[in-house]
Each structure stands twice: as structure tokens, then as C-alpha cells.
């Protein structure tokens, strides 16, 4: 099996992807990547901290090489979101979980690149379907080049991820394919909504599990597999990743109606204006159906004309002040707690501690 350590290949005259190179210093991450809140235990560890920072820098370099293209348009559109930055949560999880085994294996880095490429590809598609004007503080690709180019760019990045994962072997390819299937099903089910006989909340949680939880779980799993960890540990990380992904998205729902302005550049209430179902709104509708007069009053604002900034701000403020918003935080925290509980079988140490801390941090953030 070809690995980044024993092969050389290029994209459009750019340098070899993943070839062996000197380890950069911890200040070499020019893109400004930093370990997210919740990973303080890693930063303070004399072994894992520097190793993880070095690996993240290598992944960032490999990521840019993987999307490089000789076609000027394809190169520009593919680089658009990579250069906008991002938390790199999925590759970070893959790398962190690899520290439960042999994290020095070159396949670990390639797997980390695969999951981030997959995530980036979904963002191009999501932004088109949501008509989102901004992503990570920059105009979305479809705003710059149009819907067709943005969709095709997402497809191109998926193709690059497929090339890389095919080199990792049949099992990795199977995980990627099943994850891709769930990503598509999650988007499809979100688009068409719940069936008449289906509970909207149950439907929504499944959408989040498919659209976000599946890839977060695959990230943890691939990092573990290529580090050679025990299958029992691998299953623990899959369960953790799925629950973590749901908790992360549920927190995003609440942040949309409680934050002054999120760091991505997204205006508070964007989901409300676009009619995207989120947990606070679903709980609000449930409360209104149950006879809660205050919920019905807020629902009138939420379902009204939100085209003006004043109307949107009023709806956001009303929803944020209603008890369903705090109830939504409670639901998000419960999923985070379940993610932490899933880690009980892992050996004690900095990796387990950081995974647990991160699960709690994703529902305690404000952006």
C-alpha cells in the first residue's frame, strides 16, 4: 500500500504531496491554527502538545497540496475555503485519537487530510443549498462564481478526498463511502423535512447525526485505525464522535439566537431568516402546540417577514429570551455528557482528558 512516506505525486506542477520533511516548529503554522478551547491538557503536555502541533502543520501543508490544480479556475475555487481558515476540528480529532496508538504512522496524516477535504466539500454544497452569503467571514463560493461552479468545486474536492482515501486501503474506503452516504442522506432529509407520521425532533436529531456526527465519528475512527489501536477502543471513539457532532450542531443552533455575532461572520438569526429548522424553533413550535401563549407570540415573530434587519433582530431577541432556548442548551449539554460517558472505557491520560474537555467546551462556547 502506498503511503505519504514512500511515494511522490504532484498536482499540476506543485511540490510532492506528503513527502518526508523536517518537522516544523510550533510557530510554523502560518494559517493561524491553534488548539481549540478544551484542549488545554494537550497544550501543557510535553510530548503530545508539540507532536500534535507539528502534525497539524503538516496536515495543513498536505491539504493545500491536495487541492492544488493546474486549471486556474479550479485552483482558485478549491483554495477559496481552505484559505478562509477554519477550526480543523476533524483532522485534529483524527490526530489526537492516533495518540492512543502509534501516531507516527504516515497514514494517520493522510487520513486527517481526507476528513478535512470531505468536510470542505460539503461546505460548498451546503452554502449553495442554504443560499448562504458568507462562510468563515468571506463571501461564499457561489456568491463569487455562481452555483454551478460552487457545486462542481465541491465535487472536485470530494474526488481528491476519494483519491487519497483509496490509497489507504479498502477498509478506509468503506468508511469514507458509508460516511458520504450518510452526509447525502442527512442533507436530503433536512431538505424534504419529516414525514407526516415522524416526530420533528427525532427527525432533526437524525439529520444532525448524519450531516455532522457521521464525519466527526469517521475522523476519530480513521485516526485510531491507522495508529493501530484495539478494535474495542475504535468503537468507543466512533460512539464519542457521533455524539460530539450532534452536540456541536445543537450548540450552533443556540448560538444563532444568542450570540452578538459569530466568528464566522454569520449574522445572528441567519437560520431564522432562511427558514432552517433548528432546535430552539422546533421546541418553540412544540410549546405553542401545547398551549403556551408566550411561545405562540414568539412564533408569530419567527414566522413573520424577517427580510428587514429590525424584524430579524426582534425575532432573535424574543426567541433568545424564551425558555426554549435554555432548554436547547440543556439538550446540547446532555449530548456532550453522553459523549464523555462513551469515553469511560479509554485508558486514563491526556488524550482521554482532552477528548472529554473538548466535548464540554463545544457546548460552553459563544461562537
TrEMBL record:
- Has UniProt tagged this entry with the keyword Magnesium? yes
Q: Which Pfam families match?
A: polyprenyl_synt
Q: Which PROSITE patterns match?
A: POLYPRENYL_SYNTHASE_2
Ranges for region Disordered:
1-24
**What does this protein need as cofactor?**
Mg(2+)
Domain of life of the organism encoding this protein: Bacteria
InterPro entries xrefs: Isoprenoid_synthase_dom_sf, Polyprenyl_synt, Polyprenyl_synt_CS
UniProt keywords, alphabetically: Magnesium, Metal-binding, Transferase
Name the family.
Answer: Belongs to the FPP/GGPP synthase family.
| PANTHER family recorded | ALL TRANS-POLYPRENYL-DIPHOSPHATE SYNTHASE PDSS1 (PTHR12001:SF69), GERANYLGERANYL PYROPHOSPHATE SYNTHASE (PTHR12001)
Q: Spell out the protein name for this chain.
A: Polyprenyl synthetase family protein
